[in-house]
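REVIEWER CHECKLIST
Item 1: Sequence provided? yes
Item 2: Single chain? yes
Item 3: Sequence as submitted:
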Amino acid sequence: MALKGASYIEEKQGSMEERIGIIMNGVTGRMGLNQHLIRSILRIREEGGVRLSDGRGLLPDPILLGRDGRKLQEISRRFGGLRWSTDLNACLADEKDSIYFDSGVTGPREKNVMLAVAKGKHVYCEKPLSTSTESAVRLANAADAAGICHGIVQDKLFLPGIRKLRRLIDAGYFGKILSIRGEFGYWVFEGDWGLPSQRPSWNYRKEEDGGIILDMFAHWRYLLDHTFGKVEAVSCLGATHVPKRVDERGQTYECTADDAAYGTFLLEGGVVAQFNSSWTTRVYRDELFTMQVDGTEGSAVAGLRECRVQHRVNTPRPVWNPDVPNPISFRDGWTEVPDNMEFDNAFKVQWERYLKAVAEKSTFPYDFWDGARGVQLADLALQSWNQRRWIEIPELGKETA
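Item 4: Structure as written out by the authors:
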């Protein structure tokens, strides 16, 4: 089967399965290995591939790409001898691999993706798409000009809790949505006593494109845009609460990037969203991320997996009186939204949609322009923090770039 912007999808002799080669850059990292390789691509292979509209199966064939050959070889052995390489140019030159996937560090992404686009590869990337709005727009324009299928990872849209929330919105459960409040984060250990840090040290170095705003505001942009409505303005205060940490080599270093951010977003229709993002908070909630939505008819609290609701008819009527013990058990008035379906891994769900879009030459909605909007929100949030003011968000897309 010929594809615009790629070599081909290889049909296996006498089989209803077709092979599609994927160059996977960044699989030695935590997300690249666990979510993208093990729980997505390898799981899809175990299940016989992605089922296309005509009934054929599309079987991904990954080649692992990175700088550390020893680590790549270990991963390859662990999973039955997967192909691997430390040579990006050689991988891109192989016409049998039609897709380039990038989940490596963000800094070199524009250069690597541009090389892939120039070779006619379809490209799928982790967020953030790049380190600046200008860079992200260059990538989106180049991908459009090449006629390839380009996509950005937006895993939180496919989490069970968010999908249940989307179901409520589509059913009109909330009436008029008034506000949204998100809480994300956990305590990341400093590494200076007992327990090592759970995150890499570059996350806390601005000079290495670290910082929670660049990392998380890309998530908040697509989550708000696709679930509630377009983000029109942002006000943000960032902070570096922990000034020193210990890196992977046991060396103490100065933290130069933000480890917490307190953002307020104005959405179309006047909806107000507030999101706290922090690697310096201790968790007293059911999940590492929760989001409360309040509307005229009802409210919901969604997490990564669960979603609970309270309708207006079940809303208690508290009266403020700090002089007596609280008589209401507020959590008892909320009910759980049932699954009513089986939820697969969020990353795997989006991988399947992307692979199907490549094979069937269909539109993939979560493209580089969506990725560029995420970077744009992070850039404007940093500007808001620096200038201590609200920032309007201009349109960003093919017609305005």
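Item 5: Key structural point noted by reviewer: Residues 1-8 have pLDDT under 50 and may be disordered.
Item 6: Recommendation: ____
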